[in-house]
Design goal:
The protein has 744 residues and is mainly beta. The protein is 8% helix and 46% strand. The strands form eleven sheets. The protein has a nine-stranded antiparallel β-sheet with strand order 32-31-30-29-37-36-35-34-33, with no helix packed on it. It has a nine-stranded antiparallel β-sheet with strand order 54-53-52-51-59-58-57-56-55, with no helix packed on it. It is extended, with a radius of gyration of 35 Å. The two termini are 54 Å apart.
């Protein structure tokens, strides 16, 4: 069963818990949920047709399905809000039987909320005139053998009055009043005061009008003894007067690996301080506020970015980001949310994390561990925090790597990358050097339980993960994504060649003694050429330095994003991100088009170079490898017996080339270079962003194009759109907008 079908049937199954007909439940099935809105129109139609067919079948089987669903029985009941119930009563108080929420646990494992009329609360044993503990029973009206209970305590104290300890007195148009907005205290005969539970009071808001600005009297009555009441006044004000001041948090999606929740901005007197880089609204300027559809829209009159604040939820939705990016969601911190500042290594001008409801999440802890090497609660760094932690106030935590003392220091040495022989790092007693550079970095160590050691120089530099068992170092990014491994130089059999370029940069390479230094180094994505004055290709026997070296490169990017051949018979290379197990890498992908069909595709990389011609390896999707040649001076690929030359204008002879106007007024153009462009105009400039497109079918009145789309998961997708010619004018739909050719 496909995932989409399973999700559909799961949702239907949930709806069948209702003892109703198909007509009653059909609105509960959200078909659109199972349609990928990013897919092309033809695919949407197929999915809708498939689901429609499923509905026709379900209409036939629904009576039987409902019969069996209705045979599910209640196995037990659970009080869902026991923490909100009054469990301590004073003398001469009435038992509060309202407000109890009960869940039914079905014998199929599902939890269903019980209606009030389904439940009976038996408090016959309760006696408010006598101190003691009483058991309250709750059971189903339809079956009194299915029951649960909880205990309450009647004390010797008596209530002498109630008073308002704290309340919200300002509301905005559209808001309702809730018992959570106020704190009521009971005054007792022994002189003590006790806060009431949520179910212990009832609000009388009969005079309150949330749609009308004004002042209203609100009443409160104690449910256990209606003789105790109080009143207070609240003001209803226009939303335009809402004070948006406060601190706002956001989940930091810029940090892909276990994103933490951080302080995004702080607003006071309509002036913002911005702490999150994706929010471009200016700091230290008075914000412009407008009320739109019950929300407050906030801008700085300078940027296109806007913030939309919902006064009832405290959610700030930030729009106007880069094209295609989803809105960002920020939230207003309340009195139970605390800011966690950082102290220790690498923390200058750093972020503040948010402990939501006092909880510093495991994601935030993981972020601190990954970024700084560890998180501790005090300067001694004795107890390391590794899981969710609860705070009761704004706090400071210590981050960094706790120093280790190890006389052996097995990680000391010089390490190189086997792929190209490049020296990556040299670690000495107190400092290390990167890639043959002269700058010394102080480093910090952290020893893992298995003896491995993490070596860091700052929070923004790579983590050197020394693996004791293998005697190698893995390089990880600052946010703990694996990049590659390096080996230790064996000075007995290997020599180090230092290259000093004409522009002053230093590079070091490892060569096995007795071998020659390669004057060209080939990697999958580039080829580096070294012109070394005085070097006669003799074997290297000891460490040596070459100066005034001319270094030149050719890159895969120099030949990518270009068509080689004709519009219907060509070879194409493109840059593409691909996901590894724990990391993302940039690589190159090719495909071969013949007669409008993709006949071959796969990964491509440099394999060698000779006399101005590079050898490239095609790693085909079929599992086979093939080698092709690229002549740099002629810009030409040789693939078997075929030769395909760079074509700068593959669409030059087609009349669909030209400018197009969309239904929404936007502009696009199809270029003779084989591209579709999005035209963006401002008061002072016009910019065009291009995507390469390819013809995959063609006749006089219809052309289907293919383009490569990188989705939000960094996965490559093939997308399509079709242009049709009607009455001599071409038109097409792209990104949901219809475009029509402009005829001069």
């Amino acid at each position: 069963m496909r995932k989409i079908e399973k999700e559909f049937l799961d949702q239907l199954d949930k709806s069948l818990n209702y003892d109703k007909s198909y007509i009653d439940i059909q609105d509960k099935i959200d078909v659109n949920k199972f349609i990928d809105k990013q897919e092309v129109k033809t695919k949407k139609t197929k999915i809708k047709l498939a689901l429609a067919s499923a509905f026709l079948l379900l209409i036939m089987i629904i009576p039987i399905s409902i019969y069996f669903a209705s045979t599910s029985h209640v196995s037990e009941i659970i009080i869902a809000n026991e923490a909100d119930l009054v469990t301590e009563y004073q003398k001469n108080c009435n038992f509060i039987e309202t407000g109890i929420i009960v869940d039914k646990k079905m014998d199929n494992g599902k939890i269903v909320r019980a209606a009030k009329e389904e439940v009976i609360v038996n408090y016959d044993s309760f006696n408010s005139k006598k101190a003691g503990i009483y058991e309250i029973f709750v059971y189903l009206k339809s079956n009194n053998t299915i029951k649960t209970s909880y205990k309450v305590n009647v004390t010797n104290d008596e209530i002498t009055g109630i008073e308002l300890k704290k309340s919200r007195i300002t509301y905005y148009v559209g808001e309702s009043i809730n018992t959570k907005d106020l704190i009521i205290e009971k005054k007792l005969s022994n002189g003590n005061k006790i806060e009431t539970k949520l179910t212990e009071c009832t609000i009388d808001d009969s005079s309150y009008n949330s749609d009308q600005v004004g002042t209203y009297e609100i009443g409160v009555v104690l449910n256990s003894n209606n003789d105790f009441t109080l009143t207070y006044d609240v003001d209803v004000r226009p939303i335009s007067e809402l004070d948006i001041s406060g601190k706002y948090g956001i989940v930091d999606e810029m940090y892909e690996n276990t994103p933490p929740t951080i302080l995004a901005m702080e607003i006071e007197n309509d002036i913002a301080q911005i702490y999150y880089s994706e929010i471009v609204i200016s700091s230290n300027v008075t914000l412009k506020k407008e009320v739109t559809d019950g929300n407050i829209t906030i801008s700085d009159s300078k940027h296109n970015q806007k913030m939309r604040y919902n006064p009832f939820t405290g959610i700030m939705t930030i729009t106007g980001l880069m094209r295609g990016d989803p809105d960002m969601i920020s939230f207003k911190l309340d009195e139970d949310d605390y800011l966690i500042s950082l102290s220790g290594a690498f923390t200058s001008n750093d972020i503040k994390l948010v402990a939501v409801d006092g909880h510093l999440s495991s994601n935030s802890i993981q972020y601190l561990n990954n970024t700084y090497g560890g998180v501790y609660l005090d300067e001694t760094m004795d107890v390391r925090v590794t899981s969710e932690t609860i705070f009761t106030s704004d706090s400071v935590v210590v981050v960094g790597s706790k120093p280790i003392i190890d006389d052996k220091k097995p990680y000391l040495g010089i390490y190189y990358r086997e792929e190209d022989g490049r020296v990556i790092v040299r670690i000495e007693e107190d400092v290390l050097y990167y890639t043959g550079g002269s700058k010394a970095y102080k480093y910090y160590l952290e020893q893992k339980d298995n003896g491995d050691i993490w070596i860091r120089t700052s929070k923004n530099e790579p983590i050197l993960h020394y693996i004791l068992e293998k005697d190698i170092i893995e390089l990880w990014t600052a946010d703990t994504l694996y990049e590659y491994s390096v080996k230790r130089v064996d000075t007995q059999i290997q020599a180090i060649v230092t290259i000093v370029a004409t522009y002053g940069s230093h590079y070091q390479f490892v060569v096995t003694k007795g071998e020659r230094f390669p004057i060209q180094v080939v990697s999958k994505t580039d080829i580096t050429f070294y012109t070394i004055p005085g070097y006669r290709n003799t074997p290297i026997m000891e460490d040596v330095t070459f100066t005034n070296v001319t270094i030149s490169n050719v890159y895969m990017s120099d030949i990518s994003s270009r068509i080689y051949g004709e519009y219907n018979d060509y070879f194409y290379v493109t840059n593409s991100w691909t996901a590894g197990k724990d990391f993302m890498i940039s690589s190159y992908w090719y495909f071969r088009i013949k007669n409008f069909e993709i006949v071959d595709s796969g990964w491509i990389g440099f394999s060698g170079h000779e006399n101005g011609v590079s050898i490239l390896a095609l790693h085909k999707d079929s599992g086979e490898d093939e080698y092709v040649y690229f002549n740099w001076s002629e810009k030409k690929f040789t693939i078997g017996e075929e030769q395909l030359t760079y074509n700068a204008t593959p669409f030059k002879d087609f009349d669909f080339v030209g400018n197009y106007i969309g239904e929404d007024g936007s502009e696009r153009l199809i270029s003779d270079r084989g591209m579709i462009g999005m035209v963006e105009k401002t008061e002072h400039s016009t910019t065009i962003s291009y995507e390469t497109i390819y013809i995959i079918s063609l006749n006089d009145e219809e052309v289907m194009f293919l383009y490569i789309y990188q989705n939000d998961k960094d996965e490559r997708e093939l997308k399509y759109f079709t242009a049709t010619k009607e009455n001599g004018v071409w038109q097409f739909v792209f990104d949901g907008i219809k475009y029509t050719q402009v005829i001069e």
